[in-house]
Amino acid sequence: MTPAVLVLAGPVARDEAAGLCGKVRALLEDTRAGVVVCDVGGLGPPGLGTVDLLARLQLAARRAGGRIRLRAPDPALSGLLDLVGLPFEVERQPEQRKPAPGVEEAVESGDPAL
Hints:
Layout: E1 4-9, H1 17-31, E2 35-42, H2 48-63, E3 67-71, H3 75-84, E4 89-90
Parallel strand pairs: 1-2, 2-3, 3-4
Helix pairs in contact: 1-2
């Protein structure tokens, strides 16, 4: 099943949190995917208000039998969530492949053979 996506844009006021928690519960019920992806790329600079909002959304999702997964979190937000001890699942971006260990891309003519 494809999870629903909830886009969080701009600073979210504390009084908007209850409505967003309701949206998370409704999305979990409608899709039955067990996961709601929260696109947090547009939230702006992270702060404790953002941490509070995400904690509330995760709690609402857990109470509804699901969870949330973050999409496009700012590295500072990820660090702040780690600092306060709130683990969140994060969607991974495709990684650039690295060469296998021990494989050189180029060899200098004066390098000794291994």
